[in-house]
Recover the amino acids of this structure.
């Protein structure tokens, strides 16, 4: 493992990663502390918007996949093709705003 002093992230990067993780995980604190930190660091709203957009997309995509897997186990074999189509089958789709998440 790298020395902590050698692997310190800039405060803005750490806050962005933490904000995204909080949103994607549906954490009860919602990343509001990180949002405040990013704004106090002067991070552009457009950059914050992109982080929020990608995190929400990943959270929503994970929920869709989880629901689809449940539905596949629940519904009849005749309906299985419809639930698979709902996820699009792609490993990474862009957000509704067109931001790449991978």
């Amino acid at each position: 493992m790298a020395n902590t002093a050698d692997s310190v992230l800039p405060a803005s990067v750490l806050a962005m990663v933490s904000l995204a993780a909080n949103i994607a995980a549906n954490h009860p604190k919602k990343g509001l502390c990180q949002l405040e930190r990013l704004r106090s660091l002067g991070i552009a709203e457009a950059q914050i918007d992109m982080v929020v957009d990608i995190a929400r997309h990943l959270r929503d995509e994970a929920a869709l996949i989880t629901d689809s897997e449940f539905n596949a186990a629940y519904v009849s074999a005749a309906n299985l093709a419809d639930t698979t189509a709902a996820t699009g089958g792609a490993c990474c789709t862009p957000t509704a705003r067109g931001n790449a998440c991978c």
Notes: Residues 38 and 54 are 16 Å apart (CA to CA). The chain has a mean pLDDT of 82.
